[in-house]
Each structure stands twice: as C-alpha cells, then as structure tokens.
Design a protein that fits this description.
The protein folds into 2 domains: 81 residues, no CATH class; 119 residues, no CATH class. 40% of the residues lie in helices and 28% in strands. Helix 3 packs antiparallel against helix 5 and helix 4 packs across helix 5. The longest helix is centred in the C-terminal third of the chain and has 31 residues. It is elongated, with a radius of gyration of 32 Å. 13% of the residues are buried.
Length: 207
Amino acid sequence: MSYIKLTNGAPTAYTIGELRRDNPQVSFPRNVPSDTLAEYAVHPLTVTPEPEVDTDTQMLERNGFIYNDSEQRWETAWLVRPKNTDELESDRAAIRQQVADRRYQAETSGTIINGMPIDTGRDSQALITGAAVSAMLDPGYTVHWKTGDGFVELTAEQIIGVATAVRSHVQACFDREAELLTALDGGTLTPEMLQEGWPNESVPEPA
C-alpha cells in the first residue's frame, strides 16, 4: 500500500514507517486504520497505471499526486508532453549508434568461403587486401593463409577470390546499415529489423 501526507495542503509520498518514525511517542497498531491515518494527514494513494504514449514523439513523466473528486481518492498523476527537437534528435542519434554497432558486429563476425572460415575483422581485412595486391602483381604468387580451421595454401587466383568475397560481405553490411537508417528517417524502423537482413555467414566461392 502506498500513501501520501498532506503538508500545508501539498501531498508528498509517505510510508507507514515514516509515520512511526515521526511519531515515536505513539504506539500504532500493525495495520493502522484509515481514520487514524487521516488524523495525521496521511491518506492511501492509488497508483494509477502509466498512460499509453507515442514514445517516438511524446514524453511521459510522473507529475506528483492529484485528488480524484469522483472517486474520492488520491492518485498518482501523469504528464504527457511532446518531445522537443533536441530530445527527438537525441533518441535518433542513439538508434543510429545501435544500427552502427550491429553493422560492425555483422561485418567483423567472419564468413565462410568455399568451406573456409575467414576472419573479417578490420586487421584481417587489411591483411587480405595486401595479399590480394601481391596476387594481382604476381599471378604465380601463393600464400599459406591461416583460417579458423588452420593453414591452407592459396593461389593468386584464390587469394583474389577471397578478397572479393570478403569485400562483398563487408559492403553488404554497410548496405544493410544504410537501409536501416533510411527506415529510421522514414519512421518505419522496428526493433526486429535490426536483427534481419545481414549477410549470411556462408557465401559461395567467387567465380
């Protein structure tokens, strides 16, 4: 049970524990009767449920307590107000960061190319690009490449194929991020969309 106390006519949240503390000379029963509470300007409080709001454009705040004449009871009061431009932009900035974080997770989580697990972290992307440059300069170039399953020997053609597939994986992640940001600006983004549409872990070997 929740309570309020009237002090100079103004209601504030109050508890039975505070009533006992503030009146140490009084021996209150375990369940203090309503008429006794009223003698100390303490009244039961009805905690009303939060009203539904459009969270994209509105803010919900507790607004103290109000006396409901028709119900003859004290209730929690709620204030619904429109978000201002700064608040809306702050919310959008937070969502944009969530989208970017999800893209980075998908981008760097790795991929499978012709059965080989390939690291797609930023350092690995740089190493693959460097190997691809060497392969383009020297068609006879080969390399022992470390995958998630151990070392494999790749020819120049295979190295270029791996680099192409990794680049496609990375670009698909950025393309999905751009789609989600477009949906955010259009007001159609949903939480489910944040987990959908990212590139598959396994991709076919490039031709």
